[in-house]
Amino acid sequence: YLTDDVDAWLAHYGADRPWHQRWGTREDQLMIQSLAEEALGSASAMGQPPVRWFQEWHNALPADRRSSSHETLTPDGAIGPHTRRQLVADYMNRDGTTLPDDVTLTVHGCGESFPLADGAEDEIEPTPAGPDSDAKDRRVELYFFDRVLGVEPPPPGEISAPGSPQYPEWRARARHTHDLRLGAGGQAAIRPVSWFGYRKSFPKPSLFGAIRRAAQHLEEHPLAHLVIVGHTDTLGSDGDNHALSLARAEAVREILTGDVEALMARFDTPDPHEPWSWEELQWLLHGVRVASAPAYVGEADGVLGPATQLALGAFQMSERDLEITYDSDRATVERLVERYIEAALGDVTRPSETRVEAVGGGHWSLPRPFGPLPADYDPEEDLVEPFGSDGYRRVELFLFDVAPSPPAEEFPTAPGGSDVYDRWCDAVDDELEPADWPCWVQVVASDYVPRSVSVGLERLDAASGSGGLSTDARGYGRGLVPRGYYRASVSGGQGPEAHYVHHQPDERCGSLIVVSLADAAGIAPAGESA
After folding, report:
1. 91, 133, 223, 362: least buried by Cβ within 10 Å?
2. Is 256 found in the same domain as 138?
3. 529 within some domain
4. Three-state DSSP class for residue 365
């Protein structure tokens, strides 16, 4: 870069380089983002695919801003050899200068031999005994020596071995130090209030707001990258919990990227404990809409009861081209999955699979606050309120401006691994709030004929929170109700009938209030007068 050697950089893309050292799309995106931020103030303002934006921006550069090798590009959105050469040249031309020819340049490597001490980065600590990942150790330094005397003491070959004295001596002799930190850009995160069922991996409809918000962020930031982190409660072995947490993150990724085939496969094979079945179908039915209301409202209990059968039939009729069987044939389930994905994303563009990763955090990544922790933080007392063990069964979504740092492959797969989770949480500077998920209430008689009534809700576990709603001709009522325990009083015709309802949106599809036929004698079926 200092000598504007474009060919040397292009060699890093060569097939002769080991795959883990070879440059590619990620490096292209980093350079385009840098140029866009300089030109527009933000990479999110490109308004079109990044490569095409670069090609058009490059062609419009004034003569005094062009590199010495500037050539016109065809704005086709493809990052071919010609476009990449011009991209590297423009990126190197950002500083507007080059290293003078009379400067002698020596390149030297220190490997992992001289890590910086935590909390005192002007000090060197001993080389770690095992693998260690610390961003501050991934650095370059430029030392300027007297032109006549040269480098003193002379470097010990191309690479310094652990314990060699030359590099520490260079640091000790430095009279003026300029510490230039190159950040990886901003980082956002989403922590949905949506909990997975025990030993389950199905993403419930209460995750829709987070899925849609993440997709919207990726749409607005063309170079952004998403990592979904799954978690479990503390029950189960380390291996089982890692597999389950990864399955949860991957299931969210499959909905976000529209991978119907992968989601359907979960009905055929353990995931990881057992295949998806009736409980997951009930969640699917709750997430899709039939005539603007959920196809199913009630507990996701995994039982094929009358309400579930009626919901399947209503969905099949609404699709028009499905056979009306009131059962879960393959075609119906696949259509449900497709509609569920559509409901989750809404009108937001589906991101490409290459921009979304999934990792499993097992039970060893406790829900802590985002952003740097205060000095007096106590992990036992200051955890984000998890509402008991249920709250540990969660996913979190980390959105990086360009690429995850540290990379997702460094995320620990067992307790006592790397501190990637904490470092991601520390770096969050924007916690995004997803839209709330509305919980529906439906009142039916024991013959499952909907009833149009008034419903009063009396909060039993708090001093306030009571309220009410009225159901429509299909027996549906809708409202945002705080998590808790309520007594539901249903009135209509001959008077009220009290029922206890445990309203917890992440564990139930809603509240299905079944009124006995005797109690419903004075409550008219939908569409009739009373």
Report:
1. 133
2. no
3. no
4. coil
Q: Do 147 and 196 belong to one domain?
A: no
- Number of domains the chain is built from: 4
* 129 shares its domain with 87: no
C-alpha–C-alpha distance, residues 451 and 513, integer Å: 10
pTM of this structure: 0.66
For the chain, how long is the longest CA-to-CA vector?
A: 104
Q: Check residue 510 and give left, alpha or beta (phi > 0: left; psi -120 to 50: alpha).
A: left
Q: Report which DSSP code applies to 354.
A: G
**CB 470 within 8 Å of CB 451:** no
Q: Tell me the sheet residues that pair with 476.
A: 442
Per-residue model confidence as pLDDT tens digits over 246-297: 999 999 999 999 999 999 999 999 888 899 999 999 999 999 999 888 899 8
CA distance 160 to 171: 14
pLDDT of 22-36, one tens digit each? 999 889 988 998 898
CB 248 within 8 A of CB 256: no
Same structural domain for residues 127 and 23?
A: no
Q: Which of 431, 466, 496 is the last residue before a domain boundary?
A: 431
- Examine the fold and report which residue of 60, 95, 130 is the final residue of a domain before the chain moves on: 95
Around Cβ 454, how many Cβ atoms within 10 Å? Answer: 15
Q: How many Å apart are CA 497 and CA 432, to the nearest integer?
A: 42
Give yes or no: residues 412 and 338 share one domain. Answer: yes
d(CA 70, CA 62): 11
Instruction: Pull the structure tokens for residue 376.
Output: 């007096």
Measured CA to CA, the distance from residue 508 to residue 171 in angstroms comes to 62
- Give the type of residue at 52: R
pLDDT confidence of 484, banded at 50, 70, 90? low
Domain that holds residue 457: 439-515
Q: Check whether residue 192 and residue 171 sit in a common domain.
A: no
- If asked whether residues 128 and 20 sit together in one domain, one would say no
